[in-house]
Amino acid sequence: MTDRSYCSLTLASASPRRLDLLRQIGITPDEIYHPNIDETPIPDESPRRLVERLATLKALAGANKFSRTYVLGADTVVACGRKILGKAEDEQTARSYLELLSGRRHRVFGGICVIDPAGIIQSKAVETIVTFKRLEEKDICLYLCGKEWRDKAGGYAIQGRAAAFVKKISGSYPNVVGLPIYETVNLLVGMRYRMIEEI
After folding, report:
1. What is d(CA 148, CA 130) in angstroms, rounded to the nearest whole number?
2. Structure pTM?
3. Residue 119: CATH number of its domain
4. Average pLDDT over residues 161-189
């Protein structure tokens, strides 16, 4: 039988949405690690570079804690122009984000990083363009009342009530939810992660 410890997978992310997306395609991580990293952008850092750096830091934190495992780190950054919209931690911030995104296009960047058991690191950033309809005051108020904005990049969750705000999407939908599945699987398989244990 294959040495299962060698092909195990650790998810270095606290996001339940990423775990759900992996399980949806039949991948259940053997370990889930909640890395505590500083997510503050470096001055003049682009959203793409930020999200890839944060995903890598999460993966490195997981690799330092767990050995003989593949480690997947992931992060999501929402940007309107070059303005980075972080996680909404209060209602006022969420409101300001929704008002900014109203009737406009914005970009959602998903960063993924995989570290294999030998310590080899590969990372990638995936971009999705999302266009919101023009939001009325009642749209914003109702959404804020639902509390879905809590701890969400850009102040919204596309898999919830905010789906009604989306006029157009170009690119990966799972990326906006929290993990670009197609690219994640390609990265894992390319690094010889076995999706199914061999007997």
Report:
1. 18
2. 0.92
3. 3.90.950.10
4. 97
Domain contains 197:
no
Burial of 181 (0-12, 13-18, 19+ CB in 10 A): buried
> Is residue 99 in some structural domain?
yes
Catalytic residue selected from 3, 30, 44, 75: 75
Q: Is 3 annotated in the active site?
A: no
Residue 145 placed within a domain: yes
139: left (phi over 0), alpha (psi -120 to 50) or beta: alpha
Residue 4 lies in a domain: no
Whether the per-residue pLDDT at 123 is higher than 70: the answer is yes
Out of 63-72, 115-124, 190-199, pick the least confident: 190-199
Name the domain count of the chain. Answer: 1
